Amino acid sequence: MLTTFLRWFEAPIFPDDEDKTRSALLLNVVQNTFLVAFPVIIIGVLLGDKVPQTERVITILLLAWLTIFGARLTMLTGRVMMAGVMTVALLFSATTLAVYNLGTIRAPATSFYLLSIVMSGLIINRRAIVWMAVISGITIIALLLSEMNGLLPRPTLKVSVTQGVTSIVAYTIVSILLYLAVKSIDEGLARARQELAERQSAEEKLRANEDRFRAMIENISDAIALVDENATIQYISPAAERILGYSSVERIGSSAFDNLARSEDVLTLQGAFAKLQAEPHIKHSFMLQARHKDGSLRWIEATAANLLDPASVQAIVVNYRDITERIHAEKEREKYIEELGRQNAELERFTYTVSHDLRNPLVTIKGFLGMLDKDIKENQQNKIQEDFKRIAGAADKMDELLSDLLELSRVGRIINPPEEIDLVQLTQSAVETLDARLREKNVHVNISPDLPYVFADRIRLGEVLENLIDNAAKNMGDQKDPLIEIGVLHRENDPIFFVKDNGIGIERQYQTKIFSLFEKLDPTIEGTGIGLALVKRIIETHGGKIWVESEGKGKGSTFCFTIPDSVQ
CA 192, 198, 202: angle at the middle one, nearest 5? Predict the structure, then answer.
């Protein structure tokens, strides 16, 4: 209850109009003062003595007090200007009535004219000062003349012309000074409002520019760091976390040399800082490796500029990006270029070898055609049959060569979908396919039961096993107890599959050469010399590698190969 009563005496606030709020605050002070002062004056009149027209004075004060309440209600509804006019008019009217009833302008109530002038300037506007001063002056002159001519009630004080004139002059001077003061205040407030508006506009533009700049910095893929002369990070953009995994909270205050991968990277960054300090007007670019928060290494390409001198920056600005994928792509490209060069060289050798090896059957066919013609003319039936046999053998040889070459060309070009393969079962199938040759050579085959399941091209992997087993069987020499072992070793991450024999063995100088086209250790052994080249191409197509291990002639051979990421 008390809080609600006290709130009624508070001034209203108008957030959208500062001038209105200021006027309301001043008017609230005046009204609250009158609401307290008028009852005090009434009590003073009642307790005092020799106050002429006491009843009339009290009536005037009561009416004025009630009018103040009305003006306050008007102010609380938001009509501050009207409430101010009502308050000033009330004060002026009450002062005039009081002076009239007291019968002289020398009465203390006359000073309220000055208060009316001041209030009109502070609550209404500076023009109201002029109007109130003129009206007060005219009223004082009228009261003065009325008093001199006996038109006012008989006063208890005597009045002189000099006192009246002096009061008029004093009020005039006070009015002029107050007008000038209020004018100066209004002009100052106007300038302050203009400056404030301009400052707010500038701040809004600056804030908008900052927002645009921040949005640009926070959304670009490159990271930006501000580093002081001691290489301490002062600021780092959000892109840095995407590049190296560390947030700005983790990196600000730390050294730019932290998390570098190698000692040479530290030297690279030290060299860049030295150049920036020696040549502050030149940008410097450099490349190094840094360690990601997850432990991986990232290649970083950076450009730095020395902006330690400008007061608005006072830092070395470093712009950097993650080029790890680009570096890997460049290495992959170099690998492809190297592979392409190797394939071109292999193609040249292939062209030469094919042209040479295919020419032999043609030369044979052409030679025996000449001999066939001669034998037909001489009617030598036995030699004719031999000639046909030789020509057919050369044709079969050419057909075998062309078939193997066609199969070799398909590897890597015709790709069968990978599938889960039981390697034990696939090896047994290859052994069954070669059963005739193995029986002919009396070769015993041991298949390890530890062979795993793999995910690969079933048809191609079957060709690998068939070629390696067939090659081992053909190269047993005069071994009395020929044996082929097929198993798996676990030396590294990827398992190593092997086909081992106790045949003729391979000397070191031939251990790479045998994987080339048409290469055979023993020319008398049947075959085209394409089998191991085909195996090598299939394994490489699967991303693996193949090699042979042998202690030399007569000590057997072990063909090893890998198929990365294939074991289930």
Answer: 140
